[in-house]
Amino acid sequence: MSDSGEEKDVYDDINITPMLDLAYVLMVIFIIMTTASVQGIKVNLPQASAAPSLAKPQTKAITITADGTMFLDTFPVTMGELENLLRQYRAANPQLPVIIKADSSIQYQRVVEVLDLLGRLEISQLGLVTQRIVK
Which of 42, 110, 124, 127 is most exposed, with minimal Cβ within 10 Å? Predict the structure, then answer.
């Protein structure tokens, strides 16, 4: 029994074609699964026009300076004028938003008077402007 003529064949190379086929199939499955899960929730998005909006902002700003002068937007007003103007604006827009900007050194009573006026006029959308302190 001589093994010299019948030695086992030694494989010098490995056939990787089946392994590549499996890798390509897995890659295709992975791509399909990730694109299917990323789509998210569909919503009907609002459309914006190309023309700029010419509508005036609805929010009215009441400013009280350090010397006690009151301004509605940029116009100086007295308490009576402020009441009449806000009454007119509220008649045009029942959901009139108002912000109050008051100097930190004024008496608190002026802010309370303005808040009382807004309460009498039933203006409920109200904001107080403050400055953020960065430490």
Answer: 42
